[in-house]
């Protein structure tokens, strides 16, 4: 049983290695075009898929949304019963199908084409050539097998387009594609990249057999190759390596888009306010005490008033503010030290005479983790929150940071 588990992981790892080679090689231009379409999308990226591919599509949509690219998942069946209204001009559709012949997705193509929405596909078509497999020597070798769409399958599964879709039934095998897997949308043109039936063409230094592509890939503006040499399932039936490849390709798109958008840690925090992750990325602004909850006195305030303010606000500290700007701070520790030195004469002092000048401060935009680091370094329990002009905006206490589970 352990050998089976190890074999599954190795098969999927090899599939991912082959995908990485394609992204860095023959599929690089198609991958970049997909990124460009999604980056310039004025609306949302609508991700769709059925069955196991649908589950992967949900994850890709979630990853895109959480990394700065607005996206949603569209169930193909629900789309056929009204949810297709989610797709509008300005969107980009990303469709996942291992076979490229999923009927529920093919039924959406006419509307997608009518709306002139760009279509990116992830299918198991070997668009970029044969899938490398590992031989006994450990060296990569080219598989002789090719996925084909037979003429009989095409006649049983005619393309759903009419003139609205601009693609005739039976023309899938004649849809031309460039070297990186993106289709050439002129369906009446003889494809230069596909040799006539029964002939072979040279590619990658050797002869290759004719390859027909699926209906979905043939209709795409950009078709991405998610082919695998084999599934990790012993029967070769359960989607395993193929779904892993789709998931990884989705992550590759999402992260590339994120970096291109300049997506930063603070942007990620803004999109993840809940859960442990949200707490870890919490901002000082969301934790600070402000308004009436902020303890403060004027520099001329007498010590009885200072003590009253500290007790009433229950933070063991008060800011000393003049003209809206911070001039100092008085903590309960400061009071204890003054009492040890001056005794009851402390009560005759003003806040301005007793305060600690130039206390440590923090901006409200900073992360809670930064506040904790400052408190630990300076061995203090409170930080006054100020803006660039030292206007007081609030106060954050160590107790408030406990809720972030960072302590």
Output the number of helix runs. 16
Number of domains: 2
- Proper CATH architecture of the largest domain: 3-Layer(aba) Sandwich
Calculate the mean pLDDT score and round it.
81
Description:
There is one protein chain. The longest helix has 22 residues, at 2-23. This protein has two domains: 2-263, Glucose-6-phosphate isomerase like protein, domain 1 (Rossmann fold, 3-Layer(aba) Sandwich); 284-404, CBS-domain. The protein has helices at residues 2-23, 28-39, 52-66, 76-79, 103-106, 109-114, 151-156, 215-218, 241-260, 265-270, 275-280, 303-313, 332-342, 351-354, 368-378, 398-401, and strands at 45-49, 71-74, 92-97, 119-123, 132-134, 140-142, 176-177, 183-184, 201-203, 206-208, 222-225, 296-297, 317-322, 325-331, 356-357, 361-362, 382-386, 392-397. The protein is built from 16 helices and 18 strands. The two termini are 42 Å apart. The chain is elongated and about 95 Å long. The strands form six sheets. It has a five-stranded parallel beta sheet with strand order 2-1-3-4-11. Strands 12-13-14-15 form a four-stranded mixed beta sheet.
């Amino acid at each position: 049983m352990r050998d089976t588990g190890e074999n599954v992981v190795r098969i999927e790892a090899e599939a991912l290695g082959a995908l990485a080679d394609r992204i860095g090689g023959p599929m690089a231009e198609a991958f970049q075009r997909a990124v460009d379409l999604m980056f310039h999308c004025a609306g949302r990226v609508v991700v769709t898929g059925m069955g196991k591919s649908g589950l992967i599509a949900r994850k890709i949509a979630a990853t895109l949304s959480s990394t700065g690219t607005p996206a949603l998942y569209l169930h193909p069946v629900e789309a056929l019963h009204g949810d297709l209204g989610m797709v509008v001009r300005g969107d980009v559709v990303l469709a996942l199908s291992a076979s490229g012949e999923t009927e529920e997705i093919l039924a959406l193509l006419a509307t997608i084409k009518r709306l002139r929405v760009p279509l990116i596909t992830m299918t198991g078509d070997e668009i970029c050539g044969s899938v490398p497999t590992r031989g006994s020597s450990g060296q990569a070798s080219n598989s002789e097998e090719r996925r084909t769409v037979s003429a009989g399958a095409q006649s049983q599964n005619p393309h759903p387009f009419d003139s609205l879709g601009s693609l005739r039934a039976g023309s899938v095998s004649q849809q031309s594609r460039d070297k990186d897997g993106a289709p050439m949308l002129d369906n009446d043109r003889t494809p230069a990249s596909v040799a006539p039936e029964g002939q072979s063409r040279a590619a990658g230094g050797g002869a290759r057999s004719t390859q027909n592509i699926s209906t979905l890939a043939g209709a795409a503006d950009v078709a991405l190759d998610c082919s695998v040499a084999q599934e990790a399932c012993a029967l070769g039936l359960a989607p395993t390596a193929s779904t892993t490849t789709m998931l990884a390709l989705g992550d590759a798109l999402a992260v590339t888009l994120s970096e291109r958008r300049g997506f930063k840690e603070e942007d990620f925090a803004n999109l993840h306010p809940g859960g442990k992750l949200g707490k870890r990325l919490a901002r000082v602004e969301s934790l600070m005490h402000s308004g009436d909850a902020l303890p403060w006195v004027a520099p001329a305030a007498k010590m009885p008033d200072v003590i009253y303010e500290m007790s009433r606000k229950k933070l063991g500290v008060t800011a000393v503010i003049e003209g809206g700007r911070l001039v100092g701070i008085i903590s309960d520790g400061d009071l204890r030290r003054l009492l040890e030195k001056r005794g009851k004469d402390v009560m005759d002092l003003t806040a301005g005479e007793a305060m600690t000048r130039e206390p440590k401060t923090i901006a409200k935009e900073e992360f809670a983790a930064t506040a904790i680091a400052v408190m630990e370094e300076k061995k203090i329990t409170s930080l006054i929150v100020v803006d660039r002009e030292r206007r007081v905006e609030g106060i954050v206490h160590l107790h408030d940071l406990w809720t972030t589970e960072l302590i």
